[in-house]
Amino acid sequence: MAPLLATVAAALSAGYYIEGKYQLGKDLTVVRAAVQARKRFDNCIKENDCSIYNRFEEQCQIRPYSVALVFEGSSYTWKDLELASNRLAHWFVANGIQKRDRVAMMMFNSPMFIITWLALLKLAVVPAFINNQITGPVLIHSLKVADAKMLVFDYELAPAIQESLGEIQGLGYKLYTMTPQEQVEGQFYRQLSKESKDAIEMPSFFGYVDWRQHSAAGFSKEIRRDVQMHDPASLIYTSGTTGFPKAAVMDHGRCTIATKSWGVLCKIVPESKIYITLPLYHSAGSIIGVGQSWTTGCTIILARKFSVNRFWKDCVDYDVTHFQYIGELCRYLLHAPESPLDKKHNVQMAFGNGMRPDVWSKFQERFNIPTVFEYYTMSEGTGALMNVGKTLRDVGAVGYRGPIVRILQNTMRIVKVDLDTEELIRDKKTGLCIECGPNEVGELLTLADNKQQISRYVGYFNQPKVSQSKLVRDVMVKDDIYFRTGDILYRSKDYYYYFADRAGDTYRWKGENVSTAEIADSMGHVDGVTACTVYGVSVPGQDGRAGMAALVLKDTILRPDKDGEYMMVDEVALQAFVERMSVHVSKKLPAYAVPRFLRICEQELDITGTFKNRKVEYKKDGFDLSKVKERMYWWTPQGRYLPFGEVENAEIVAGRARL
């Protein structure tokens, strides 16, 4: 018995050692999801059953009277959504929409967004999800790229459409609001005086989608029989952090792989309840959030928009098991006052991307979230990184690729790049790219091989030149093709992957490369900071760019007055904060990485609808006192931040100040 026990103990020890070193369990989780997704993909092709809508229809047959969606206290069964989308589909047909047409949707989160999406997919029509925050030239650009027949929108967005009405109509769009006519008239006339009501007529540049009077009869599956995996299921626009949005093609194949694999990775079952506060016009909220329910049969708890005050109450009230995050959402929750609801919920997993390292552990501990599933992917990309994080070892990583995954999916490379010119650095002898070693930053490239489903590159709709510009040849071998993500990453020696920056955000100062994301993460640890973004600004007579940080502070330091007209500043608290920041950056950051300027913002940072910081305007403003009316500080030769004004600006412009 003793020798047997010793053998078992030795085997267990070896097993624990191998698992601890190589984390094969994490690899096997990813492989299992990939295998099941591929099996679903192949079966759909074999049975001419490629439309992602068919996955929704399957749930309607399996569990017609189970709750599919909850929104602001109202529940909708799978049957409810099916019948409503049937009626709306009949309306589209009656108004000239045919198979393979495109219809632009500009709507807020609501059941009607999902019903409209389903109605179009049912007819094999392609929806284009228009960001509901855009206006003017950006809106016109997005609609021009979509080249759709019709734009349906929520009435609250009518002013943005009316602002560019002539140009939109010039593109050939028919305009209809999804908001019921009686509701529109109530909203419109409620704002007017009695005299105005008699004198002003309702706007007449749009029609009404009066879908409720149409038949609830379903449509034959035959209408979608010839839908192929490469056909667009939707057009989803990039966030537009660096320019005009681009329309990424989410085809039925990508949707099939994503919805199936995310369901497996997140361990979502029909009894699960998934809380979604992200905008549905983005692929995270729509495809990964709502779309996976068409494969798993779970219940979606949908919020009109993200709310710090309502978040945990909703999680408790609706018995949420999973929620989706992106960007700064988790930071907002972490900086909210502590509440009894913080740990009263039943959330088992948070999944998403963009959780900052300085937030991760604090967030998991305070809110008792067992698992954080952080992933890295792009709507138009050809690969993904995944990190199902449960331990301290996982914190901060956007992905983990163990030995099994690297063998089966050898499709990703981090290569050297000139951070100033954004040109890839090539070997002078071979002409090929140079792969980075452990802890060396470079641009992430993903294989673009259309012979393999896992690495297919679809590109952007109606923008062939832009699509081709994202590809690069001769990376690892002659004539191979990779997709340029435009993101700067690095990996550890044990193959955890970490996000460093966007290409173009990293800047050079004093001959050194500075990662804005890493600096922002560090500064975010200083007590008093609720949000931070870092960027490089040009300085007269200096090579490279100096670092500047835009900071939003806690309302114990800076807060609006009761009327919201001006900011009230606790001068003592502000001075103490500046001193804390001075000590922190001098101790925690290399001298060249210390931001030379601080901008104390009086409003929240400018972000996209998916909580990504927009830096373009901050970069343009720089430290120009004619543009920046908020308080600024500069890093003095004495190694501390002091107020920055006209005198200090004159010294810098004249080249007399030492930065």
From TrEMBL:
It catalyses: a very long-chain fatty acid + ATP + CoA = a very long-chain fatty acyl-CoA + AMP + diphosphate. GO terms for biological process: long-chain fatty acid import into cell. Residues 522-612 form the AMP-binding enzyme C-terminal domain. The chain crosses the membrane at residues 108-130. Keywords: ATP-binding, Cell membrane, Ligase, Lipid transport, Membrane, Nucleotide-binding, Peroxisome, Transmembrane, Transmembrane helix, Transport. SUPFAM superfamilies: Acetyl-CoA synthetase-like (SSF56801). It is found in: Cell membrane; Peroxisome membrane. It comes from the Eukaryota. GO terms for cellular component: cytoplasmic side of plasma membrane; lipid droplet; peroxisomal membrane. It is a multi-pass membrane protein. Residues 56-431 form the AMP-dependent synthetase/ligase domain. GO terms for molecular function: ATP binding; long-chain fatty acid transmembrane transporter activity; long-chain fatty acid-CoA ligase activity. Belongs to the ATP-dependent AMP-binding enzyme family. PANTHER family: FATTY ACID TRANSPORT PROTEIN 3, ISOFORM A (PTHR43107:SF15), LONG-CHAIN FATTY ACID TRANSPORT PROTEIN (PTHR43107). Acyl-CoA synthetase required for both the import of long chain fatty acids (LCFAs) (C14-C18) and the activation very long chain fatty acids (VLCFAs) (C20-C26) by esterification of the fatty acids into metabolically active CoA-thioesters for subsequent degradation or incorporation into phospholipids. The transport and fatty acyl-CoA synthetase activities are genetically separable and are thus independent activities. Esterifies VLCFAs in the peroxisome matrix. The VLCFAs are actively transported into peroxisomes by a PXA1-PXA2 heterodimeric transporter in the peroxisomal membrane. This is Very long-chain fatty acid transport protein.
